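Batch job 17 of 40 flagged for manual review because the log was empty.
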Amino acid sequence: MTGRRGGRPLVPAYLSTGGVARPSRPQLERLTVLSGSGGPVPAGLPAAQLALLDALLGGSLTVLEAAALLKLPVSAVRVLAAGLLDRGLLLARAPIPPAECFDPDLLKRVADGLRALKHD
């Protein structure tokens, strides 16, 4: 995964996944939060999976952040993460859903109340 001058990695992304094109866990999204399980790392893991585990030693990362750090496509990191999840070496948490929109009337009343406090 060492880069060249043009920014492209020397090893194509599909080789880092062992030729696997689709993750075994399709629910892994770009904003899924990954963290290491803390268990022992078995011998014989592919280099790309070891790199992902190493990246997660300091805490948690989203799939998107891990892809940027490893300089791999998101699709490749999803495959790598799914393989590690299947082996119990990673933990994944679904992304936090976006908040519901606030009621515009409520926001107007809050703003009016703040203006009234400012003028007192």
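Reviewer: the log was empty due to a logging misconfiguration, but the result itself is present. The chain has five helices and three strands. Unflagging and moving on to job 18.
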